[in-house]
Amino acid sequence: MSDDEMSDDERRGRRERSPSPAARSKSPSKSKSPEKSPPRSPGGEPPARVTQTLEVDKDDAAFILGRGGSTKRKIARVSGTEIELDEHTLQITLNGSAEQCARAKDYIDFVRQQRVGPVTINMDTPRDDFSAYIVPGDCIGFVMGRNGQTLRSMEEEWGVLMFFAKTDDAQREGGRDGDESLCIFGPLARPPRRAARRGAEVKVMSAVEHKHPGYCVSSKGDLREHERVQ
Fold first, then answer.
1. Which is nearest to 172 in space by CA: 227, 117, 104?
2. Keyword Glycoprotein: yes or no (predicted)?
3. Do 66 and 72 touch, CB atoms closer than 8 A?
4. N or C: more exposed end of the chain, with fewer CB within 10 A?
């Protein structure tokens, strides 16, 4: 029936049954799920924060601080710990959960080792903040970049701590003479949708494949198996 053939009462009833634009705008719609809250203790409370201190010498303090405080900020970011370094008393103050402070101490120790020689990683205790990838000897300089700038840029991009180090003999069995383990520390992923440690590892694999074609990807396009620690 056309509008011309409808009576006034019928037209009024039709308008009353039709929802108004305002009513239509109130109809249910899909929305994003709320972001998940940070992990909590079994009792539902955030982990208790603790304050710990450690003493360093003058040379170590300068190395841990880094240019413009860059190394200290990196360690704080990766460990999730607040770090203060008093250059007069040579005391480092850590504030965070017990686990965060323990990781910060490990990272500080690794940085101190870099100042005097190669870093050694103790693999006897499993840890969930660590990945290692064996880099072929002819790619190490390319992955490092001039004065380590390429490695530093990857750290900044993915929010991780990266350096070449010695791990246990079993992890190095798959490597050749001159190959070295690139150690990556930090969370496996960092919300929202950030790959963090895994992203850094993929970036390293891409650099190695660019410099050494066929090392990571076969001629058939398959990813090759290489010794790594997760």
1. 227
2. no
3. yes
4. N
How many residues can be counted in the chain?
Answer: 230
Convert the pLDDT of each residue in 117-147 to its tens digit. Answer: 889 888 777 889 999 888 999 999 999 999 9
DSSP 221: S
What the chain holds in terms of domains, given with CATH numbers, is 47-117 (3.30.1370.10), 118-230 (3.30.1370.10)
Helix (H) or strand (E) holding 228: strand 228-229
Is beta strand 161-166 parallel, antiparallel or unpaired with respect to 119-120?
Answer: parallel
* Residue found by looking up tokens 């009513």 in the block: 23
**How would you list the strands of the sheet with 91-97, edge to edge?**
49-55, 91-97, 82-86
* Average pLDDT of every residue of the chain: 80
User: Tokens 């006034």 — which residue?
Assistant: 8
- Residue spans of alpha helices (H) in 69-188: 70-79, 98-116, 140-144, 149-158, 169-172
182-201 as b/e: b if 16+ CB within 10 A = bbbbbbbebeeeebbbbbbb
- 7/217: higher pLDDT: 217
Give the residue carrying structure tokens 């203060």: 84
16 three-state secondary structure: helix
| Alpha carbons 204 and 206: distance in angstroms, whole number | 5
